[in-house]
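Example record

One chain of 193 residues, shown exactly as stored in the release files.
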Amino acid sequence: AGYWGNFIPQIPNQFLRRYTKQGEWVLDTFLGSGTTLIESKRLGRNGIGFELQQAVADLAISNINREMNLLSKNVVTEVVVGDSTELDYKKILNDFGVESVQFVIMHPPYWDIVKFSNDPRDLSNALDIDAFIEKMGIIADKVYEILENDRYCAIVIGDKYSGGEWIPLGFYTMQEFLRHGFTLKSTIIKNFE
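Predicted structure tokens for this chain:
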């Protein structure tokens, strides 16, 4: 609550339980209010989250700190402020003495449905669908380099309806990740009930 881009904790919680073990490394390229790092810490996973906006990163840190009494003290939880298309993922991981992560989760803006900032680097300000997908492709390349072999990347994204047209943003993003070397394992449709 209090942040437009948050998602229910059960989503990262279930992904982390299914695809990671305690002590492994999780990367969230669109951290937002910190849900993934809170769930990582609760489950004993090391977590690094990238957030473009300093104010949102501060909110994430505050949320994580508020949950400290419920969380594992023996794992790394790090918030990095910066643009996911420009950050040096390998260097950031090397700062923690690791070369790869075992799971990546992304909950990017659903293009321009909600404007998260006025920053032109913000995906919610992409000029058109092609610019949005191009930036997602840059991130796909960066993630592909640091994701351990045979491990998983989950993209939580919705579609968009605009000007009388359904825009399958999730499928376009999925196709871009396939173009950048990923293999599709599953498509999961959330049931809000």
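Notes: Residues 109 and 117 are 11 Å apart (CA to CA).
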